[in-house]
Amino acid sequence: MTELALKKNAPPASSYLLDFWRKLQKNRMGLVGLGMLLSITLAAVFAPVISPYEPSSTADVGAGDIYQPPSAEHLFGTDDAGTDIFTNFIYGSRVSLTVGFFAAFISIVVGGVLGIVAGFFGGRWENFIMRFTDIMLVIPDLPLIVVVVALTKPSLLNIIFVIGLLGWTTTARVVRSQTLAVKSRKFVLRARAIGAGRGHIIWRHVLPLVMPILVVQAVLVVSLAVLNESTLAFLGLSDPTTVSWGQMLNYAFGRGAMSTGAWWALVAPGFGIVWVVLGLTLLGQGLEQVLNPRLDTHHLMPGRPNVGKEAEVQSGATKPVLEVRNLSIDYVSQGKAPAHAIENVSFSLKEGELLGLVGESGCGKTTLMLGLLRLLPQAGQIVNGSVFFGGKNLTMLTEEEMNAVRWSGISIIFQGAMNALNPVRTVGDQIGEAIIKHMPGYPKEKIQGRITELLDLVGIAASHKDSFPHQYSGGMRQRAMIAMALACNPSVVVADEPTTALDVMVQAQILELLAELRRKLGLAVIFVTHDLGVVAEMCDRVLVMYGGVTAEYADVDTVYNDPRHPYTQELLKAFPDLTKPKKKLSSIPGYPPRLDALPPGCRFAPRCPAVFERCRTEQPAIHAIPGGAEHVASCHLVEGVK
Amino acid sequence: MPDSGIALLSFREDILLNRFQNLIRRIGWAVLTIAFVIVLNFFLFRILPGDPARAGVHDPRLKKDAVEAIRVRFGLDKPVINCFDSLNPVKFGNCGVNPLETQFFIYVRNLFIGEMGFSYHTNRPVTEILAERLWNTVLLIGAGQILSVIIGVVFGIAAAWKARTNIDYGALTVSLLVWSLPTFWLGIILLFWGSANGFPIGGKATPGMSSMPLSVRWGDIAEHMILPTITYTLVYMGEYMLIMRSSLLDVLSEDYILTAKAKGLSTFQILRDHALKNAMLPLVTVIAINLGFTVAGAIQIESVFSWPGLGLSIFEAVNRRDFPVLQGAFLLIAVAVIAANLIADLTYTYLDPRVKME
């Protein structure tokens, strides 16, 4: 259902409409539709000026004038009575538009009032109105309109009322759901709290927000009314005193245009109907796009080509399982400079190692992980660097080769497994799918056993194998996700904040499970988290990221006992330490930089307590810090430290 | 949503119980709606200006006793409902009238035994006429519906998958265009073109075919069906395409599609195994809601192609002021649409494991 993106406070109603109009001006589809509609409306208004003849005038008509093909004298030819089709065409627009607009007006008023009453007052009224709407909605409307018009009199007024009074159902539904959404907004609740009358609230607060949707709905209802009117006329139910497009078609079809081959008598009126309805449809689509802007992007759109370097050879004698070297990722959007989401990040992962990836939200942790597996959204592009895994540079592989690496080599546990599992397939089925894909030789009869085994590993009873995700609790879903990640015996598992949105007890269980599985199966794990406590307890090495770059990278003891980057130091200050109970906790003021507004120098400079002049202009390089373990930090302060 | 193992255990039973309750409730609403239509249908046909008999027979020269005979024949001499001779509120009747002898009761009773009166035009029982024509409409709508759904779905998938490419824009343009075509006009244009190119000019069969072998007769009917079916398909495929496209776009931006991609599944596998079922579910509802509109299409198509279905009955009845047939055809169409809606509703609850019944 269409629902508006509502703003927090209620600005004056006029600004909504102005804003709306401004956006519509940029929408080509809507403008074309509006243009088509305006042109035919003008033609209808100025019909007497445009038309060369009187409508349906049979004066000076002779037998030879019947069904004359188009000529200079009769632009669209003549019809069965010898009258000028162009004239009738112009005058016909009057009936279509009159019926369309007036009938739609009735429908919109009735539907709008019923919808607002149902949505705003709720309770018994809502129940009654919506049940009645449901009943009216299933009764086929055209047959009912035909019956009622046939039983009464096909005068213009009757047709308008019948079409109008039977066309309000969808409007009532749409308006009701929008009213419900508006009703619970803060400013409406506030207005109620200060004792504003219901009429006032509806008029000043609800109506302005329902209006745009009503406009879209009105456009749709007008087009349906125009179609219904022309159908009625074609079926022979039209006001005989006025000429309309449907009626012209009825006469032409019933009175020999087919057999005499007078195509012009059939084409012109139909073209009129299509023009109006298409104009309205385009306008409606345009309005809809303005109200409900959606990015038409999705996960299956082809990604941008990687601009990695030529396959470098992996260096070093002891090859790590995974080695990321100078990886840079940009977000590219049309008409804007590319945003550097990840710049020059390098790290490596040994067999069985647990790497903690920490940093605030928006520091590029998830982007980095998606980049590893080449699962970036369409705007994302790897612009530099290499990812070595199993002797191959992943950035150079084709999509098919990459598919073979995914899950069987590197698997990923997404944050919020709530939506990461397909809701309409059973959990066991989704685990089995990975096995079938990546272990083609696996005996079929053993797959079910393997699924049970995996679920057992994460502590889910085999009886839940054939349940759907919605039948699982949040913690169970996260465990199921872990079981799925282990299905193909990967050598690296990426756990992207696997415990957010879970309660503390479940978090602890999941973390323990991960640590245990790592010991048991010798997995290498990249653990993405905000939680420094978890990192201290579980991880071997830590990569601290800030604003898309490496802040500091070292083993866990070094990071906790000898942090060199001010960001790491500040993060640790914000984290309680049980061994120093009197420590004062402090938070870092401000937020990580936005990708489209990165500071020119060091990305942490605006928030850094140790900032000095150089930081604001020059981005620090990644400096190695001497002393035992591999330790790097990107800060001007550590440059040249011996 | 259940959040513990205990809740999980009892969940299955809940589903069964709720499914049953849900079934009963939905059937109840369908029955209520049908009852509403029956009542509506009765009173609609009595708000006629003037006497239905006179209006129906359409001849002011008829003698008074002839009109009376017609009124008796069509049961119009009886009071409309208890206390009312007619719907004219001033004309009170005798409240002591046996309710079993009112027009309303007779109408309802007759409906239950499948009796819908006689055609003013041919004097044949309405039930017989409609029974003959119902299947032709089902045949036409069935063929058209299947084709338009298939084509709409295929193009919708292509458009969503290749979103924001020329394939997408092309499919969008075509569907908006066909959506805007008046059904009857498209039919006329196709018939005009077809009659010049060797297609039959309407009807269901070529006259004199009844003596031919069955296979020839079926072939002949199929040939007559081509143009009406194309019209139907063209008119409705646009909407299905639009809905499939937007539904699939929604699904393809879900997290579980990213999971499927991370699992190394190919694009084809993801579409087939993870996206299509989820995206088709909303379509089931739309197809059901659309049935009301497709009947409207059938009236137009059958009128243009003289296809002897319910729609043509309505067209003819309107032009001949043959009210019993109009009344019967409307009732039959309404009941069929309500029933189809019910079936689609139930199918949806059956297909989607997530549907939770309150």
What's the SSE blueprint?
The complex is a heterodimer of chains A (642) and B (358).
Chain A: H1 13-25, H2 28-45, H3 47-50, H4 85-121, H5 123-138, H6 141-151, H7 156-165, H8 169-183, H9 186-193, H10 198-234, H11 245-254, H12 257-260, H13 263-291, E1 322-331, E2 339-349, E3 354-358, H14 365-372, E4 380-389, E5 392-393, H15 399-405, E6 410-413, H16 427-438, H17 444-457, H18 474-486, E7 492-496, H19 504-521, E8 524-529, H20 532-538, E9 541-546, E10 549-555, H21 556-561, H22 566-573, E11 623-624, E12 632-633
Helix pairs in contact in A: 1-10, 2-4, 2-13, 4-5, 4-7, 4-8, 4-10, 4-13, 5-8, 8-10, 9-10, 10-11, 10-13, 11-13, 16-17, 16-18, 17-18, 18-19
Chain B: H1 5-44, H2 52-57, H3 64-73, H4 103-112, H5 126-161, H6 166-179, H7 183-195, H8 214-252, H9 255-262, H10 267-305, H11 310-320, H12 323-351
Helix pairs in contact in B: 1-12, 5-6, 5-8, 5-10, 5-12, 6-8, 7-8, 7-10, 8-10, 9-10, 10-11, 10-12, 11-12
